[in-house]
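Exercise 7. Given the components listed, write out the predicted structure of the assembled complex. Treat all entries as one system.
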Amino acid sequence: MYTQAIDLPDKPEQSGAKAAGGTRPGEAAGAGPAAAEHERQQAFDAAIAADDKIEPQDWMPDAYRRTLVRQISQHAHSEVVGMLPEGNWITRAPSLRRKAILLAKVQDEGGHGLYLYSAAETLGVSRDEMIEALLSGKAKYSSIFNYPTLSWADMGCIGWLVDGAAIMNQIPLCRCSYGPYARAMIRICKEESFHQRQGYELMLALCRGTPAQKAMAQEALDRWWWPVVMMFGPSDAESVHSAQTMKWGIKRISNDDLRQKFIDATVPQAELLGLRIPDPDLKWNAERGHYDFGEIDWSELWRVINGDGPCNRERLETRRRAHENGAWVRDAALAFARKRSTRQQAA
Amino acid sequence: MSDPTKEWPLWEVFIRSKQGLEHKHCGSLHASDAQQALRMARDVYTRRLEGVSIWVVPSAAITASAPESKDSYFEPAADKIYRHPTFYVLPDEVGHM
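Answer.
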């Protein structure tokens, strides 16, 4: 997560480059700005083709930069908004052990948001601009967090399924062509595994408990299954950005392939819990070597993405309130730091 | 609209993962001053005992080499293969050296 704010030397070190007999990009015989641009584009394409990383201060096409800003900031917003559904249960966790685990997990989500905001900032967008885009409703975040958490079993389903799906999505991103994003993802994936395991363990405890507890687990799975399956995004045919982001090495595996991978991994886990996945069409297809599954109700995904899910308004309202209520703390800390540094300079 | 004069400055965070190893860059964060940057770095980057020591540096205080001169800037090192031990062919009888 290197930053754009690092000071570059004012003037390129021309003399050094010349003395070494090197040519700077754009200095090639009679090069105008167009030729320089072309040369930079070629260097970028070659780096992508060779599976090299692009770093913040390297030249990159505007569209690549814009795509990354959009994707990384959406990812960061998802982590931050993702604290809310689980935060809802911290005060009502059934034991101190579960409470400590849930607190640690929610803190991790906040940390993941910070890693990702830093990575996005290396592309020249400011933290405040991103927060503003979230709070104004302009920026999107993962639609899954617009569903309510109605029972304690939802904490299990979020860890097991939502974080499980997130891991499937995020592991290929560790190899993303943009260095700061890839590094943030490596760190996040390391921490995410605890999230999924604690969720599954929670489900296991409910499923081995009283009939009422097991029913609670089943009821939660019934509500979460389809929204989680939709987390992988629209099918490949409908996905507007997929082809280009694959070419740029930002995305590595298609939405449908990841979804299939997730379902294949999750069905046996549900069986072990003794829970029924709410999809009558779900069955093993020996020929394909994968599970077949039922039709996804895409109209629901679009409805939730476009702002009309069960909790969209509440989530944004909560974030806005938190941001506004924290404003005086941010201002006071900055004023204090400035005053102290002025005094130190005077002394 | 966001007001850039109200943004907390950016800091680069370096962490020594254990005694005997060097500090290594691990990320950046916003903080109002150095003490706050240290505390936030602890919470953001060392939740799982990833470090025994933290440095924070204002990002604006770092001067970096220009990325577009990557090749020419480091070029003088490329043709001096005699700086590597494998450049020298010695008889087998010398053994490990």
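Discussion: Residues 10-29 of chain A have pLDDT under 50 and may be disordered. The first helix of chain A runs from residue 14 to 19.
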